[in-house]
Amino acid sequence: MHEFKEIFADREAPAGRVVRAIAAIGSVSATQLVKSTGLARSTVSTVLTDLKDRGIVLEGETRSAGFGRPTQLLSLNPTQGFCAGILFGLGEVRVAICDLAHTVVSDFWFEMPQDYTPSDAAVRVRLQLEEECDKLGIATSELLGVGLAVSAPVSYEGQVLNGSILPTWCGIDIAQVFSREIDCPIFAENESHCGALAEMTWGAAVGEPNFVLFKFDLGVGGAVVINGIVQRGAFGNAAEFGHISLNPHGPLCRCGNRGCLETYAGGFNLIRLAEQATGERISIETFIERVKAGNASYRRLVEDAAEMAGWGMGITSTILSPPLFVIAGKLASLGEIFITALEKHFARHSVQPPPHARHIRNPKIMVGKFLANDDTVLGAVALVLHQHGRVTA
Amino acid sequence: MHEFKEIFADREAPAGRVVRAIAAIGSVSATQLVKSTGLARSTVSTVLTDLKDRGIVLEGETRSAGFGRPTQLLSLNPTQGFCAGILFGLGEVRVAICDLAHTVVSDFWFEMPQDYTPSDAAVRVRLQLEEECDKLGIATSELLGVGLAVSAPVSYEGQVLNGSILPTWCGIDIAQVFSREIDCPIFAENESHCGALAEMTWGAAVGEPNFVLFKFDLGVGGAVVINGIVQRGAFGNAAEFGHISLNPHGPLCRCGNRGCLETYAGGFNLIRLAEQATGERISIETFIERVKAGNASYRRLVEDAAEMAGWGMGITSTILSPPLFVIAGKLASLGEIFITALEKHFARHSVQPPPHARHIRNPKIMVGKFLANDDTVLGAVALVLHQHGRVTA
Question: If both were cysteines, with which of A108, A365, B303, B391 could B175 make a disulfide (CB 3.0 to 4.6 Å apart)?
Fold first, then answer.
C-alpha cells in the first residue's frame, strides 16, 4: 500500500498520471486513459503492463459498443488505498471512507455542539478517523487524502470565504487547522462543488464532461463543470448561483445586495414565509413533507421558488449553453412539483432553439442522484479521487 | 510554402502541434511550447532544431524576467504562410490578410447591396482574395485558411443560428456555401467570439487565459474564455449575453423573451430612444459623437444602458468569477462616460470580496484594444491562427 501511495502522489510520472486518471473515473478503457492523461498510447500500454503485474491495476468487465471488439475496462485494486470525505453540518459531522473501486467501506457521523469551531472539529475528525482506519487495518497517515466539504466558497489556498451557515468558520485557514491534526494530504472545497464531483463520479453526470449543477437547499449554490473540471474562477468563488441578482429592489441578501436568487428560492426563505403564514416554527424536512402531502400554501411557495430558480438557470444557460443541468438539494427531492414550474420559467428566460436548426435542443434538466447529504460527503471523497481542491502538500 | 502548409495541417504530428502553437501565440519560449502542446521537452527540442534548420522557425528577441537566464523567443518565419479573415457587415465586406508573424499585409473592403446573400458574398470574396493573393505571389489555395466572422451564433457544423443583423443568412450552411468558392480550410464563428480571439492575440487580453468579453455595439454579444479556449457551449451558442434576461415584464426582444440585456443596452435601442425624443433619424456613429460632445439627453441614455450592462456583467461574474472583463464595441469607445456607471452597477450586482480575504479583488474591467470593426476582421484571422471554429476539412 505504501508503494501505491508513492505512485499516486507522483503528479509528473506517467504511472502517477495513469493511476490518478483511473482513480477519478473508477473503471476506464486504455483508449480513455490515452485521452485523459495526454500520454502516448505506447507509454500508457507500458505503464499498464507494469501496474497489472504488480497487482495495482485489475482488468475488469468488458464492454461492447454494439459493433467491433469489446473494450477491456481497467480499475484500481480496491484494497490498494482508501480516501476519506468529511461533511461539516450545522450540528453534526459526517465521515465516509471509500476504497479505490469507489465503494464506501465506512460511513458514520457524530454530533457537535452548535457553533463548533474548526479546531474542535479537526480534533474530533482525527479521533474518529483513527478509530475507523484501525478497523480497516491502516493508519490515518496511510489514507490517500482527506477531503473536506464546507458550506461556503473556499479559496485555492484553503481559506473559507464566508460563514453563512457556519459563522465561526468565516476566514479560517483550513489547511493550517486540519494539517495540525491530520497527517495526510488535505483537500477542501465548497460543498456544492463537492456535490458536482459526486454526480460526475457516481451520479447523474457520469460520462458527461460538461454540465451545470444547481443545488436548492437551505441556501442556493452550484457548480460549473467544463471538460470534466469543476471551475473555481479567479479565487475559488465561481458558481455562487445563490447570488445571481434578479431584482435590484428585491429583498436584502446576506451578501449585501438585493434580490439575489437565494432570497427567493433558498429553503431558509421558504421556511420563513411558511412560518409567517402559520405562526408555527418548522424545519426544512417538515416543510418538504407537507409539500409532498399536498399542502396548497406550501406548494405555492415551492412554485414561486421554482419560478425564480428557472429564471436563474435560464440566465446561466444563455451564458454557458451547457448540454445538461443537474438539480440537487432538498427542493429537488420534490421532483415534478418543483421541476415542472422550473422548466416552464427556464424556457421563458433562456434563448430557445431556432426553428430551422433541428439538432439544437434545450439542455437536459435532470434531478441529481444525491439529494440528501450523500452528495456532499461522497463529493468530499471525490475531491481526493479527482485530486481537486488540494490545500496541503 | 507547400511544405509548411503540410506541417501546419497535420494535427497529430509533433511538428504540426508545435507550429500551430507558435502560430496562435505569435512569439513564444520553448518552455511555453512544452506547456501548450503537452509534448515532452525533448520532443519539442528535436522538432524545433529541425524547424529552425529548415527556416520555418526563427529565433527572435530574448526576454529576461529580471533574474536568471534571458529567454529565447521563437516565432514562425512570416513568409511561410498567410491567413485571411473576412467580416460581413450590413452593406460591406472587409477582408484582412496576415502573415505568420501576425502582421497585417493586406486590409481592404468592398460594398455589397443591402440584404446580399451568402452565395453572392462567397463569389465576391473569392474574386477579391484572388486579386490580393496574386499581389502576394500566392494562390488562394495556398492560404493556411480563411476565417469568416458572422454577426450571429454559428454551430459547430457551420450553420448560422439566427439572422438578427443579416436576415438572409439565417440557417445558412457556411461550410457548404463558401467551400464551393474557396479552396482552402474555412473557419467560421460568431463575431464576438472572433473579437475575443483578437484581444487574446493582439489586444487587452494578451497573456490572460481566463477572461470574459462583453461587446456593446448595435447588439450586445460576448465570449467566455477559459484556459485560452473560447467556450462555445453545447451548440456553438454560448455567451449570448445580449439575451441575459433581466426583467420578465421588460421590452419584447427579437429572441421571443422580454427584458433581455440587449433591449436596454444595445445600440439599436439607444438610437431608437434618441429618435423618439428628437424626431431625427441618426446613426450609431452620430449618436456616439454627440455623447462625446456632451449632449445631456444622450448621455443619460448611455448611463441607463451602462446600469443594465453592469447588472448583466455582475451576474456573469457571480457565475464565472473571471479575473478580467474586456469591454468592446462602440459604447466602449465612450470610455469613462460608459465605464464609470457600469462599474458602479457591476458592484451592486456581483458578490463583493469579503473583508477578511485581502487577496480577493473585483475583476479588472478593461476597455478592449479593438473597438471598431478591427476586432472582428482580425479575430477572423485569429480563427485560422488558433485553429478555432473550423467548418471544412
Answer: B391
